[in-house]
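=== RUN LOG ===
request id: a7f3
mode: sequence -> structure
chains: 1
length: 302
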Amino acid sequence: MVHVLDTMPLGRPGIIAATLLETDEGPVLFDTGPESTFEHLATELSKIGVRPNDVRHVFLSHIHFDHSGAAWRFADFGATIYVHPRGAPHLIDPTKLIASATRLYGDEMNRLWGRFAPIAAERVRILQDNDVVRVAPFEIRAIATPGHASHHHIYHWNENVFGGDVAGVRLGDGPPTPPFVPPELDIESWLESIAKIRALDPAKLYLPHFGLVENSISSHLDALEERVRRWSIWFGDRLRAGTGEPALIPEFAAYAADELRTAGANDEQVLDYEQADPSFMAVSAALRYWRKHHPEQIASAV
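=== RESULT ===
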């Protein structure tokens, strides 16, 4: 059985999930949410008869704080933390990770994410692309899926996929949106990663933001792919027109919000999407992507 556990960041439901798989060897977690929500997650675990120290395996999609922030808490209880090779050094020594996030969030770091502590190296296990971990009766396969981040994995077992952020943000009955974040946004890689999910043809797709995709997974991936392409083009067009980052931040926020409202979201849901997938981060991510990967196309604006 799979359980979607709401971590309730800042008291808001339906934004960040930890996903729990029951196995013969005890509960397995896919992502943990931020450390700031650990106590609430522990309460949610208790409702299904699980204590934090019962969790022996934690599979991280990637190391951004909203996905990995509480991993060290489970490691301190003896869990093994599975992660992409590029993410592992930053779990063992999070100094650079914390510094990078602090540049984005400043004084809000503790309120948003809580504490991020080092994980002992012996508790971290690196998974390469297509590595399989057997947790009876399941074989859990890590699949490298860059685009959102270069150190991103999805996890596949039986007919299930835990999609991480590369599978999109979908809150309530809203549309799937691609979380563009710096510094590793790569549109071409993201499209290839979506193709990898399609090739698995999963019966169930679980999202950290948020939960089980209830309707057609194919339609979800179609809409996600369309938005990845269109948002990228939108930013490229504005860069070529000479629009700078200060102007793009409110312009893209309005563009994304209007799109959500057109899809049926109310003002509260728009705010939830903004919390899960901040529009200001998409701007710096997209500008970095165009300048790094396609400078010749925006030469006059660089």
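=== NOTES ===
The mean pLDDT is 95.
The CA atoms of residues 186 and 293 lie 8 Å apart.
=== END ===
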